[in-house]
Amino acid sequence: MTVRLDKWLWAARFFKTRAKAKNAIESGKVDVNRTRPKPSRDVVIGDFLSIRQGYDDLVIEVIDVSDKRGGAAQAQRLYRETENSRLAREEESLKRRMAGNFVISKTRPSKKGRRMIHQFKDKKNSE
Question: pLDDT for 103-123, tens place per residue?
């Protein structure tokens, strides 16, 4: 059985739609065996996929192919994340949590904060 890469990514629940999977492949966020594929490339058992989603970089091995989208438990049977990938992802997650407020602000900046941002940007652009 052969399955297109965009359809497999959708079935494995990495993307909500095939169109989003296709856009991710075309924009270079998905690699197959360290090469940049086309969305129509067939997925084969044993392929290694590198997928960038948000802050996370996943490296997975294809264990099974399917063109049907099922539940999360069924989707997880299609692939296995490599140990190095899992450890690196957990380490990066810990670093983001340790950075705390420096990464994500829950509120908009105040007027004073906006002035400081503009001053910083102006200073940086003048250098």
Answer: 556 688 889 988 988 988 888
CATH number for region 3-126: 3.10.290.10
User: Do 29 and 55 form a contact (C-beta atoms < 8 A)?
Assistant: no
Contact 45/63 with Cβ under 8 angstroms?
yes
3-class DSSP string for 26-73: HCCCEEECCECCCCCCEECCCCEEEEEECCEEEEEEECCCCCCCCCHH
Of 23-32, 91-100, 113-122, the range with the lowest mean pLDDT is 91-100
Distance CA 67, CA 15 (A): 13
How big is the CA angle at 56 (ends 55 and 59), to the nearest 5 degrees? Answer: 155
Q: What pTM was estimated for this model as a whole? A: 0.75
Q: Is residue 110 helix, strand or coil?
A: coil
